[in-house]
Amino acid sequence: GVYYESMRNYLDLAYVGTIRIGTPPQEFKVIFDTGSSDLWVPSIYCSSPACANHNVFNPLLSTTFRVSGRPIHLQYGSGTMSGFLAYDTVQFEGLVDESQAFGLSLREPGKFMEYAVFDGILGLAYPSLSLQGTIPIFDNLWKKGLISQELFAFYLSKKEEEGSVVMFGGVDHSYYRGDLNWVPVSKPFYWQLSMDSISMNGAVIACSGGCEAIIDTGTSLLIGPSSVVLNIQKIINAKQSYSGEYMIDCNTINTLPDIVFTINGINYPVPASAYIREGQEGTCYSNFDEGRGGLFVSDSWILGDVFLRLYFTVFDRGNDTIGLAPAV
Amino acid sequence: CLVTIPLTRIKSMRENLREKDKLKDYLEKHPYNLAYKFVESVDPDT
Question: Nearest CA to CA, how far is B14 from chain A (Å)?
Answer without folding.
Answer: 5
